[in-house]
Structure formats: C-alpha cells, structure tokens
Specification:
Blueprint lengths: L5 E5 L4 H14 L2 E8 L7 H9 L7 E5 L1 H14 L16 H15 L3 E3 L8 H12 L4 E3 L10 H10 L15 E4 L4 E4 L29 E8 L2 E5 L2 E2 L2 H14 L4 E7 L5 E7 L1 H17 L2 H19 L6 H13 L5 E8 L2 E8 L7 H4 L12 H21 L1
Parallel strand pairs: 1-2, 1-4, 2-3, 4-5
Antiparallel strand pairs: 6-7, 7-12, 8-9, 8-13, 9-10, 11-12, 13-14
Helix pairs in contact: 3-7, 4-5, 7-8, 9-10
Length: 405
C-alpha cells in the first residue's frame, strides 16, 4: 500500500489507540486526525483531547462529537423495530455502534482531505470486519489501515515497551495484564477476555458494571409505562423523551432492577467462538415493550414473517453489513410493518425480570367480542370452524388413507 498522507483514526484516548496514533506517525510519517465519538459510554472524553494534543495532534485535527441522539435514533431504534437478537439472545450492542463510527470516519476524511482511515480492532475479532465493510460501502476508494494486522507489537509487553519508548502515558492499571476487555456505549456494555475466557467458569461479580445483582435488586417490583409510535418508544410514564433520553432513562431503571445481563458464547463471523458478558438493561426493557405493543397491533402474518426474517437481519448487523442493500431491503419491510405499532405498554420490573402486564392502543387488533367466553352476540359463529378444520385436514386425511393402504 502507498503510504497515506493523512489518516483519520478512531481514537478512544486509551493506551492501544494512543500507541496506534504514534505508530501511524512513525511508520508512515503521515498527519493524523483523531475522531472520538460520545456514544454514551459513560466516560469523560476531554482527556482524549488532551492525550491527542500531547501526542502532537493539532487542535483543528481533533474531533470529539456527541452522537448519542443519532446513534439511538438512526441505528438502535431501527434495529429494535426488528426485535433483532443474534443467535437468539445478543442485542447487538457493539455491532450497531460500528457503522456510525465508520460513517463519521469517512465523512471527516472527506472534510479534511485525508486519504485513509484507521481503527484499533484486532485481527481476531468481528469489529475489523464491521469498520471496514462500512467504510468501503460509503467510500469505495478509501484506504483502511488496521495496525493490529501489520505491526510487530504482538504482545502486551511489546506494546508497553513501545509506549515507554515514545513517552506515551501508561495508566498504572495497564502495566499488568488487564483482567478483561470492555466496550461500552449507551445501548450496552460488553466484557471479554482473560478471566472470562473459560466458559465453564462463572463471571466474577466485578465484571458487571451497569446492573446490580438481581438478588440485590429492590424487593418491591416497579411498574412503568412506555408509549410507542411507529414502533419506536417516545414517552416514559407519560413524559415525552428524545431517543437518547429514553434509552438513558430505561438504562437507569433496568440497572437498578438487575435487568439485561447475558453470559453468551457466540459464533464470531471470523470463525471462532468467544465468550462475552453483556449488559443491556434499557434495551432489554425496550425489546419486551416493543413485543408487547406489537402483540395487539401487528397482524399475525406480518408478525410471523418478521420473526422468520429477524435472524437474517440480526446476522447482517453482527457481520457488519449495515450498509448492504439486503439490510436496507429488510429495513424497508420492517419499517412498513410498524405503521400501526403504536400505543402504551405497562411493564413490571423485578429482580432481573421485565414482563409485560398490560397493553392498549387505538390501533389494536384485539377484539374482546370475538374471543370472549361469554355471549358474543353473534360476532363469531362457532359452526364456521367445522368447515375450516375439514378443509385444512383434507391433505392429512388423504395422507393417512394412503399410508393405511
């Protein structure tokens, strides 16, 4: 690859991306632009600015942006309209953040005249695929630099030596082996590696950061009401909230009640299995609430088709194909199904559990007249069921007669 002249780096301010920043300068002699996204990870981001300046980045080349509203509105909410869960369990908290980061990397590259972007994902994981597929989908001519795949800093010891040689500050807790790796944003926290690598061993309590242990959650259940419009939550207990405000509020409620913990061994796109600990308190509540309001507003055929398509949709996001035509096609179908998904759901939060206990909507398909065990005043003629059953049984009876012969 021809050495880049200017590179936009996805920069967290941590040790690894600080080493990458310096390595890019030394390896290519290029100008580096940093991009740090506030995705609701719960950390102060100004230290990232100071660290970048310390490493010689010009103030005008340091980009720190609050993208929480865009993240929830344009990425999290569309995904939750599909009730997406990878391998039936994972709410895709890390996966869904990557296309937004890549989008801004490519946009900043165009704005600053950079000819390459760079990320800190390793060659073993899924994130390298997600970052790069998104970048190429948005700019087919962009160069992508993945230092972990090309440098010789193959161990924690070598990384620390490089940092010391280049006067990169090292936090004291980074001088030893970190107990586990953490990725966080407004939707979730994920923890992987080290003490979590043996799937037979329970995760230590200190791994969990957003949720109390369900056994330590309040002994009294809490009831909340979420109002939905076109499949998205818009109000909590009667109060209108923006997308990021909604997820923040639900995170607080879910965390307090120990909701949203997941210990998962998943199949990575690159081929190996990995074990992760995920906390998605607000997202778990949103998923239950969305299914609750869909249960009375979404036609059976549409609902069942959505459930059939959901695993494919979730896999596309997990594998990094957010900007693919097939994901966009599925999204159009999903969004079309949500036109009448509106109303309010009452949920019970209690010791790690969230349960729908009530739901109502002006667009409800639920007819008490048709389902009542009392007199339905002629709304449904039960004699009609006999012909319905006979027609549906015809092929089964023909099969049975043949088999009896």
């Amino acid at each position: 690859m021809v050495a880049p002249k200017k590179v936009v780096l996805a920069y967290s301010g941590g040790l690894d991306t600080s080493i990458i920043l310096k390595w890019l300068q030394l390896e290519y002699g290029c100008e580096v632009v940093t991009f740090t996204a506030d995705l609701g990870q719960g950390e102060e981001l100004e230290p990232a600015r100071k660290k970048a300046e310390l490493l010689g980045i010009k103030p005008e080349n340091i980009h720190i942006e609050d993208v929480r509203e865009e993240f929830v509105r344009d990425f999290v909410f569309p995904m939750f309209r599909a009730n997406a869960q990878y391998e039936g369990l994972y709410l895709l908290g890390t996966s869904i953040a990557r296309p937004l980061i890549s989008k801004r990397l490519v946009e900043i590259a165009a704005m600053t005249g950079a000819d390459a972007v760079a990320h800190g994902a390793t060659g073993k994981g899924n994130d390298q695929v997600r970052f790069e597929l998104a970048a190429y989908a948005l700019n087919p001519d962009i160069k992508v630099i993945a230092p972990w795949r090309v440098w010789d800093l193959s161990s924690r010891t070598r990384l620390l030596e490089f940092a010391e040689q280049n006067q990169i500050p090292i936090a004291k807790d980074k001088r030893g082996e970190a107990p586990f790796s953490v990725d966080a944003n407004l939707l979730h926290t994920s923890s992987e590696g080290k003490v979590l690598e043996d799937p037979a061993e329970a995760a230590p309590d200190y791994v969990y950061q957003r949720t109390v242990h369900p056994e330590d959650a309040p002994d009294k259940p809490e009831h909340i009401e979420i109002t939905y419009k076109s499949g998205d939550p818009v109000a909590l207990n009667g109060k209108d909230l923006s997308p990021a405000q909604m997820l923040t509020a639900l995170n607080e409620l879910g965390g307090k009640h120990g909701i949203g913990r997941l210990d998962l061994v998943e199949g990575r796109f690159v081929g190996m299995k990995s074990r992760g600990i995920y906390e998605t308190p607000g997202g778990t509540i949103m998923l239950e609430g969305h299914r609750g309001i869909e249960s009375i507003t979404l036609d059976r055929g549409a609902a069942h088709l959505k459930d059939e398509l959901m695993p494919k949709y979730a896999e596309l996001i997990y594998n990094g194909f957010w900007y693919s035509p097939e994901r966009e096609m599925l999204q159009a179908l999903i969004d079309n199904s949500q036109a009448h998904v509106q109303g309010t759901v009452r949920l019970k939060l209690y010791k790690g559990m969230v349960q729908t206990v009530g739901r109502w909507s002006d667009m409800s398909l639920y007819s008490q007249e048709h389902v009542t065990f009392e007199d339905d005043a002629g709304a449904y003629d039960q004699k009609d069921a006999a012909g319905f059953i006979k027609i549906n049984a015809l092929r089964l009876r023909l099969l049975a007669m043949r088999n009896r012969r």
